[in-house]
Structure formats: C-alpha cells, structure tokens
Amino acid sequence: MSGIQAPTDQLLILCLITHSFDVWHMPQGCSTWPAIWETGLNNWPSEGEIDILEGVNDAGTNTMLIHTSTGCTLPTNRDQTGRDRGTQCDTLANPAGCGASDPRRNSYGPSFNDNQGGWFAIERTESFIRIWFWPRNGNPPVEVRNGNGQINTDAWVS
After folding, report:
1. Is 38 a catalytic residue?
2. What is the tens place of the pLDDT at every residue in 84-103?
3. Average pLDDT over every residue of 18-29
4. Domain containing 76: what range?
5. What CATH number does residue 125 fall under?
6. Options 38, 49, 123, 143, the catalytic residue
C-alpha cells in the first residue's frame, strides 16, 4: 500500500467520497501521459486537482499529486509510505504540485502492465485525502478487490 494524506481546505469537496479503480493496463511509451484524476468543473486550479495515478512516458513509478491555488500546503510531517514530492500545492509557486510518489516499480508504466495492473483507491473528506495502491499480486481489502459493497477504510493498513 502507498499513499498520501493532505488537508482539503483548498479543494472543492462536492461530497465525502471513497471509491476504487481496478486498472489492468495503461498506455506506455514515448509521448504517453496516463492519468486518473479528479478536479473541479469550472475553475482550475482554484477548485483543486487530485492526481490518483499519473506519470509521463515510461516514468518508473506512480506520482500522486495535489494542485491548488494560493495558500495550500501539506504538513512537513505526514503519515505516508510514498516518497515525498514536496509540500507546496500552489500551482503558481510550484507547477508540479505537492504529494508523493510510490516507491514500487509496479505502480506505473511497463512494470505495472507486466504485473497486470492493480487497484487504486481514494478517500476524500473535509479533513484529508488518502490514496492507496495494491499491485495485482497484492492483497487489497475485499471491498476493493470485489468492487462492491460499502468501502470502509478504517480497517485498512495506512
């Protein structure tokens, strides 16, 4: 499992939501930019953007980022298993956004495809954002693996 936690006070929260994605394959190679992301409908970056899965070309691992308008940062010390990708989410100060990258090679690109993909999940509340990834040969929670039922992240390893 890998993930980031971030405050959501600068992101448009339409509802409290938890959902998962079962991804078997993604485009790979030069000039590809596979991504799964959420954003507001009308006013980027003021309504925020959350990149659940993103990379360019054959980047080695998945990058989970947040892009916002002025004033949004992540805490320096936060509970995550991913590699730190910065704390400045403001796209004017840092166009790359803030977040984490998954240290596992099978989280993105050719290695992801060779492993027949995996599952991603996101939980968005008024207090935080959490993102998880389990490789195909991993052990995701039953509700993620089966794609049905109520998702309850309280029992998930963080």
Report:
1. no
2. 999 999 999 999 999 999 99
3. 91
4. 5-146
5. 2.60.120.200
6. 49
Is residue 54 among the annotated active site residues? yes
Number of structural domains found in the chain = 1
Q: Is position 23 within any domain?
A: yes
Catalytic residue among 38, 54, 123, 143: 54
Residue 126 falls inside a structural domain = yes
Would you state the pLDDT for residue 8? 46
Integer Cα distance of 139 and 136 in angstroms: 8
Q: Which is more confidently placed, 16 or 116?
A: 116
Per-residue model confidence (pLDDT) at position 17: 65
Q: Considering the chain, what is the average pLDDT of its residues?
A: 85
- Residue 154 inside a domain? The answer is no
In a domain? residue 39 = yes
